[in-house]
Amino acid sequence: MDEIAFRGSTPRAHLALIAKYKGWEWDGFIREMGLEKINVYQYYLGSVPSKLTQDKEEKMITGLFNDMITIGALKLPSFCKAEDFSFQVGGGNWGIFLKGTGQAIETISKELHVDTRMGFPEIANLPMMISNAINRLLSEVK
């Protein structure tokens, strides 16, 4: 990550810190690929688990996060990449961490269940929720 980008004092530099949400990109991807009725866990884990574990949840949300970035539904600031972030599941929430910053964490309400399909609103809302969490994380980093 380019730490200089955090120190910008001009309005243009501050705009570079913003993760952007493009929900229509995700909706289009889901429709074009015919994934509306596919179970999110089936898609990312290869099968629907009989019991959701922390490891399985983290693998699923990381895969979903990477896909949202790849297809353009979630645009990270130019100095960030997907690998700069990690997820941890706990207490009914997902924690998103910015690696290399110590305790920088934001939580995202976990609204998914084992029957969640790729076309469900809970999935469509994730790029916005994640972009908001990333923006809060970046605002905390000095």
List the SSEs and their pairings.
Blueprint: H1 11-15, E1 20-21, H2 23-33, H3 40-45, H4 54-71, E2 74-75, E3 85-90, E4 93-98, E5 105-109, H5 121-124, H6 126-140
Key structural traits:
single chain; 142 residues; alpha+beta; three-stranded antiparallel sheet; two-stranded antiparallel ribbon; 6 helices; 5 strands; 15% strand
Can you describe this structure in just a few lines?
The chain is built from six helices and five strands. The protein has 142 residues and is an alpha+beta fold.
Description:
- The chain is α+β, with helices and mostly antiparallel strands and 142 residues long.
- The chain has helices at 11-15, 23-33, 40-45, 54-71, 121-124, 126-140, and strands at residues 20-21, 74-75, 85-90, 93-98, 105-109.
- It has one domain (3-140).
- The strands form two sheets. Strands 3-4-5 form a three-stranded antiparallel sheet. It has a two-stranded antiparallel ribbon with strand order 1-2.
- The protein is globular and about 40 Å long.
- The model is unreliable at 1-15 (pLDDT under 50).
Distance between the termini: 13 Å
Strand order of the largest sheet: 3-4-5
Mean pLDDT level: 82
Radius of gyration: 15 Å
In total, how many beta strands?
5
| Share of β-strand residues | 5-15%
Q: What's the shape?
A: globular
How many strands, which pairing sense, and closed or not: the largest β-sheet? 3 strands, antiparallel
Helix content: 40-55%
Q: What is the H/E order?
A: HEHHHEEEEHH
Overall number of domains:
1
Tally of alpha and pi helices:
6
How does the helix and strand content classify structurally? Answer: alpha+beta
